[in-house]
Design goal:
alpha+beta, 353 residues, flat, 34% strand, 31% helix, Nuclear Transport Factor 2, Chain: A
């Protein structure tokens, strides 16, 4: 009987357990977490201002680069518009001298009569460059008004040539004589009855005055064609002698080693052959052969200085040659660079100092 009483209790217990398990199985919905939105207004403001500042900086930089570029372009245009020395054709001085010979004679010589003056003007215009526009009246540039005498060219020689951007300035030392009338008062003896008396009267005499000046002639050329670009002008002759000092080389110790005697012996043989042999016979002694071919004979070698270098020796010496027959001395300074191979010396370079 006790077992029967326990059965209802067990059923009741299993019922509540099943209900409890079902309750557990039911899932409670999770509470949604509410997210509070962040305040992004500061970030947006910073980004906006950064963009504005970057845009402003870019604008200023563009304006600066634009101005700078224009300046560079303008400089290039100005430089391109300027005539450069490279654009000016090289002038042949001998050819220009031949061209100017006639011009100098026509310009310096002046004869005081109307026909000669007009002829001179006409001849000079043939040498002048043709210009479409000019600041000066071409018809007036060789006009001679108020001339009272003649001018005669005695001598001229080329003094200097100065290169300009547009022309070459040929400077000639010219010697000429001015002939002009001078009115003077002189005394004369005239008869006054049986006696003579002195009277003063005015006479016109021709006088001479020799001058020496630089005649400056601007010349332009196109290849071997020449023209005078402007009216020439006179200036005083300047001295070409200059006070020029050459910086001395650093002092070096002369070579005094065991090869000095053999070098001196070689140089004596070398200059003997240099004076007496032909150019082609010097091939075995020097890199760039040259010789006097018996034009002179060797006299003596003086002031010889030998210096040792990395590749051999450098020699400075004074060589006295003599003319055949009359024995007139010809003195020349030389510098030589020597190399040695198995006791044999070779002239790598020879310079006339």
């Amino acid at each position: 009987m006790p077992e029967k009483e326990n059965l209802p209790e067990k059923k009741e217990e299993s019922f509540f357990r099943s209900i409890a398990q079902k309750i557990k199985r039911v899932q409670r919905p999770e509470k949604a977490k509410k997210k509070v939105p962040r305040d992004r207004s500061k970030i947006v403001a910073i980004l906006v201002w950064s963009c504005l500042l970057a845009l402003l900086a870019f604008t200023l930089l563009s304006a600066f680069l634009s101005v700078n570029t224009r300046s560079v372009v303008n400089d290039i245009r100005v430089d391109a518009a300027k005539p450069s020395k490279q654009d000016k054709p090289e002038v042949s001085v001998p050819a220009a001298e031949n061209f100017l010979t006639g011009f100098i004679n026509e310009y310096v010589n002046v004869k005081n009569d109307h026909e000669s003056i007009e002829k001179r003007k006409e001849n000079l215009e043939k040498y002048m460059v043709k210009q479409k526009e000019s600041n000066y009246e071409e018809s007036e540039r060789f006009q001679l008004d108020g001339v009272k005498g003649d001018r005669v060219l005695n001598d001229y020689s080329l003094y200097n040539v100065k290169e300009g951007d547009k022309y070459s300035l040929f400077q000639y030392k010219v010697t000429y004589t001015n002939l002009f009338p001078v009115e003077k008062e002189v005394e004369k003896k005239v008869k006054d009855g049986k006696k003579e008396k002195k009277v003063k009267e005015k006479v016109t005499q021709n006088e001479k005055a020799e001058k020496q000046l630089l005649l400056n002639i601007p010349v332009i050329n196109n290849g071997d064609s020449f023209a005078v670009s402007a009216v020439p002008y006179f200036t005083q002759i300047y001295d070409l002698k200059g006070d020029i000092t050459i910086k001395k080389e650093e002092a070096r110790d002369e070579y005094t080693g065991e090869r000095k005697e053999s070098i001196e012996k070689f140089l004596h043989t070398f200059f003997e052959k240099y004076a007496s042999e032909k150019k082609e016979d010097m091939v075995y002694m020097m890199k760039e052969p040259e010789a006097l071919a018996e034009s002179l004979v060797l006299g003596e070698i003086t002031d010889m200085k030998i210096f040792e270098t990395k590749n051999g020796f450098e020699v400075f010496c004074v060589v006295q040659f003599r003319e055949k027959g009359n024995e007139i001395p010809v003195v020349e300074n030389f510098s030589l660079k020597l190399t040695e191979n198995s006791g044999q010396y070779y002239v790598e370079n020879l310079k006339h100092q």
